[in-house]
Amino acid sequence: MKKKLRNIAYIDNTNLYKGSEAEGFKIDYIKFRKYLENKHGVKMAYMFIGFVLGNEEIYKWFQECGYTLVFKPTIPNRNGIKGNCDAELVLQATSDFYENKFDNAILVSSDGDFACLVKFLIKKNKFGFLLSPRESKKCSFLLKRIGTKIVFLPQIKEKINYKNENPPLKPQF
Q1: Fewer CB within 10 Å: N-end or C-end of the chain?
Q2: DSSP for the chain, written as a single string
């Protein structure tokens, strides 16, 4: 009997949202959650996201879609708002590793700041692969040079693309 894997996805949501937008498509979060579960055996999908007052409806909707939200307070800056969740993602993945909560971690980001986490999990034989919202030439070299498997989301966008021009809820990141 084949053992069912306990895989967890760690999603840098700003990177996912803005990266896919820069690649010319919008993530259908319902399809994406189903893709993670059906294709990659993801039982839990953490979404790391900056908290913006007034977006409670979209946060509730993300949770209804099967995401476990981890918030970071946001601060205004000259480009809008900033809610860098990198440290929270690394801490959660490391904590889950030491508590033996997963067989494989799957990272959803193109951000090279996570290279140290990926190297650590590879060394411990607990890293599945990277799902990069950006195409190969836009994904951080720090992640690519590690030699881990990378799935570039633009290559599978037909499976996870939001096709309707007017989504029921538009997140504000």
Answers
A1: N
A2: -PPPP-EEEEEEHHHHHHHHHHTT--B-HHHHHHHHHHHH-EEEEEEEEEE-TT-HHHHHHHHHTTEEEEEEE-EEETTEEE---HHHHHHHHHHHHHTT--SEEEEE---GGGHHHHHHHHHTT-EEEEEESS-GGGS-HHHHTTT--EEEGGGGHHHHB---SS-SS----
d(CA 124, CA 93): 13
Prediction pTM value: 0.89
Q: What pLDDT tens digit does each residue of the chain (173 aa) get?
A: 556 679 999 999 999 999 999 999 999 999 999 999 999 999 999 999 989 888 999 999 999 999 999 998 887 777 777 767 899 999 999 999 999 999 999 999 999 999 999 999 999 999 999 999 999 889 999 999 998 899 999 999 889 888 765 555 545 44
CA distances from 39 to 3, 106, 125 (A): 16, 12, 20
Q: How far apart are the first and last CA of the chain?
A: 44
